[in-house]
Specification:
The protein is an alpha/beta fold. The chain contains 15 helices and 17 strands. It has three domains: 48 residues, no CATH class; 112 residues, Carboxypeptidase-like, regulatory domain (Immunoglobulin-like, Sandwich); 258 residues, Rossmann fold (3-Layer(aba) Sandwich), CATH 3.40.50. The strands form three sheets. The chain has a seven-stranded mixed sheet with strand order 11-13-12-14-15-16-17, with helices on both faces. Strands 2, 3, 5, 6, 7 and 10 form a six-stranded mixed sheet that branches. The N and C termini lie far apart (59 Å).
Length: 426
């Protein structure tokens, strides 16, 4: 225990206020929990780091029209566990992040948009040989192209199928409120340090704060590291509910950001298939701005005809050029939160994100903040909030003399956000 304490004190000297605070929280857990709990944190983070990828393409030669739904099964001693399903891209591509193991996929044309296969009305297919594909840790398994034609196919036969979707998947479109007892600081912290426990105990998801109403425009709020939906309470309460409906992306912030943005794309596309809305906007804070930029990159590539549905994006105090504290954490921390690898300066995630140019047809606004006597907002430096490439892509930037989180409650920020909403929505 003393060894860990010394390492955390050393790390404290190299980190920003935000990451140092997070380490203080972990120090508390070290002294209040037993050794197995600390080992569990390490185990969960290692598990997330060992995920593999299942990637493939669906080729359609059917006369039926509809989105292509790809269902993923995991082999569990002769049982097929239905864990997840996604909508393939306009090009027929699909991708799953999975634990090492054996998997199978089934794809079908979702004609009636209910997300379930109608064997007498919809066309589908699965790989008959081999049925299972082995996915190894940190590797991508390429699946042979799967063809769907006009034959009436049925799902995998003679094997018992058990549906076991996580709450993270089942909560897509779930209606809740900001008073949800799961929206707590303790759960926000769990999402960073113990993302697997979070997915089981908390769930998360892309959730609605009121029942879906056709004609009301979704505004999606995306929190940052160690954050959650309640960070946006002031701005959400200010929305005109006659015109807008707020949604919140609630996710474990310890996950790799590509995984989070993949889920974001999946969730938006599923809700689009379900409700057919034709416009939405996004307001993102801190690391949520990186998740959102990754989302826009993937969404516009996978579903180019739907790019026009994104009416605008606002990112607030986001570390677009990375965080020196995350860089130090990756180098010297005894426990490395997976998302730190992505927000570290010059990470592969950031390089890929900035090698792509923001679409000119999607209005992009950047809010940055600065504190008196500080070269940033107390957490993120100005040169990371507004790097030069970003300045060339945005419609306009707005600066606030406020703190990293405090800006979200700033009256001027509330007025600004609502004015941008009014400008870009019908």
């Amino acid at each position: 225990m003393k060894i860990y304490f010394k390492k955390y004190l050393l790390f404290h000297e190299f980190t920003s206020n935000l990451v140092a605070l997070q380490y203080v929280l972990l120090l508390i857990s070290v002294f209040t929990l037993n050794g197995c709990s600390l080992m569990e944190v390490q185990k969960q983070i290692a598990t997330v780091g060992n995920l593999g990828t299942l990637h493939g393409v669906i080729q359609v030669k059917s006369k039926l029209k509809g989105h292509i739904v790809v269902v993923r099964y995991r082999d569990n001693n002769g049982f097929l566990i239905l864990e997840n399903q996604i909508t393939a891209s306009s090009q027929g591509e699909y991708q799953f992040s999975v634990l090492p193991g054996q998997y199978s996929v089934f794809a079908f044309i979702d004609v009636n948009k209910d997300g379930e296969f109608q064997k007498d009305k919809e066309h589908g297919n699965y790989h008959k040989g081999p049925l299972f594909f082995k996915v190894k840790a940190k590797q991508t398994t390429e699946v042979k192209t799967l063809k769907i034609d006009d034959d009436i196919a049925i799902p995998i036969e003679n094997i018992k199928v058990v549906i076991n979707k996580s709450e993270f998947i089942k909560n897509i479109g779930k209606v809740t409120t900001l008073q949800n007892p799961k929206f707590t600081l303790m759960n926000y912290s769990m999402g960073m340090w113990r993302p697997l426990d979070y997915l089981v105990q908390v769930g998360g998801g892309l959730m609605m704060l009121q029942k879906y109403e056709k004609g009301k425009i979704p505004v999606i709020f995306v929190h940052g590291i160690n954050g959650g939906p309640t960070n946006f309470q002031t701005i959400i309460n200010s929305l005109d509910r006659k015109r807008y409906q707020p949604w919140v992306l609630f996710y474990p912030s310890g996950l790799r950001l590509d995984m989070v943005s993949d889920y974001f794309v999946q969730a938006v596309k599923e809700l689009d298939s379900r409700y057919g809305f034709n416009e939405f906007s996004i307001v993102a804070h801190s690391m949520g701005g990186l998740v959102t930029r990754s989302f826009v990159k993937k969404y516009t590539k996978r579903f180019p005809r739907h790019a026009k549905n994104i009416k605008f994006v606002i990112t607030v105090n986001s570390p677009m050029a990375g965080m020196p504290s995350a860089t130090s954490g990756v180098k010297i921390s005894p426990i490395i939160v997976p998302s730190w690898r992505d927000i570290a300066e010059n990470s592969e995630f950031l390089k890929d994100l900035h090698s792509w140019d923001w679409p000119s047809e999607i209005p992009y606004y950047v809010v940055f903040s600065y504190a008196d006597g500080d070269a940033g907002d107390g957490v993120v430096a100005l040169n990371s909030q507004i790097p030069f490439k970003l300045q060339k892509e945005v419609i306009r930037m707005y600066g606030f003399n406020n703190s990293h989180v405090g800006t979200l409650d700033d009256k001027k920020f509330i007025i600004l956000t609502n004015s941008i909403l009014a400008k870009h929505t019908k």
